[in-house]
Fold this protein.
Amino acid sequence: MENTYPDGEFYICPDCAHEWPIVAADNGEAEDEAAVVRDSNNNPLGDGDAVVLIKDLKVKGSSITLKKGTKVKSIRLVSGDHEVDCKIDGASYMLKAQFLKKA
């Protein structure tokens, strides 16, 4: 994300408050492992997969809540903190893989 900034030993995303170590992002081996996006059950995800939300997610800046159990088809993997780009009910969302499981 464009608002991400380094703070000591971590990168911080002010939009979602996610933190991850700078060392892992700068290390070549860790970057290869990080390139594989995994769901909440540690299954690898790929472009075009179908996933299911494992918890209710509030959409920031809106009164919309994405409900647990919602099936999302044809996901697209992107780089960054929010790894999954998808469409739910005609609207585009960027989601974290930790809130998804492979369908």
Notes: The mean pLDDT is 86. The chain has two domains: 1-35, 38-103. The chain has two helices and eleven strands.
